[in-house]
Amino acid sequence: MRSILHVLPLTALLLIHASASPCKPQGTTITAQQILHVAPNSTTCASTPAITPGECATAAQAATALSTAFIKYTLTSKAKQAAVLGLITFESGEFKYNRNHYPGVPGQGTRNMQSPTFNIKYAALIAATRDQAKAVGDAPDAVLDLLITVPEYDFGSGAWFLTTQCKEPVRMALQSGSKSGWSAFIINCVGTDANNARREYWAKAVEALGA
Ligand SMILES: *[C@@H]1O[C@H](CO)[C@@H](O)[C@H](O)[C@H]1NC(C)=O
Q: Which N-terminal stretch is annotated as signal sequence (predicted)?
């Protein structure tokens, strides 16, 4: 008698495989092209508003720094990466800013625009900034300066925040790629409104990463 595998059509086999092992996309590389799908204004920094000299970054710069951060924080789930990418593109005005200008909270920044308390914590955990952060007495703006000088730290804060500051149930829910998982991340960990403007950036990130 022939094995059942030999008589089932290929499509049936694929369906069996898909339901038996629902594997979600993984990887650490993100491309400039994927980022441009989410942040189309980041092709160039030529039209950067004068209020923020030196703060703008392009999709190409973001791609390199983000890929490094995804490796560093072992953020391999595309669904989780989409949450981070959606957050940082929204918060930084598509990478125009890495400091809070409206209203201008000293020390609030990096690409996910995290608050000074988180930046002090983040800088203390990076070997290369730990001592300098202490040396400036954890002065918020000086600590932020240390972080935004290095693209890997500047763009890595979103991955750091998700992997170290969010509770496990929030991270688990994100992994499924569901809208409710995303809302829980924004509301319960980022601590803000899961509004439409944010959701649109996240939805684009899901599309771009195939999450
Ligand atoms: C992107 O560019 C368009 C056209 O210049 C502008 O209207 C829009 O506000 C920009 N978006 C962001 C997030 O800066």
A: 1-20
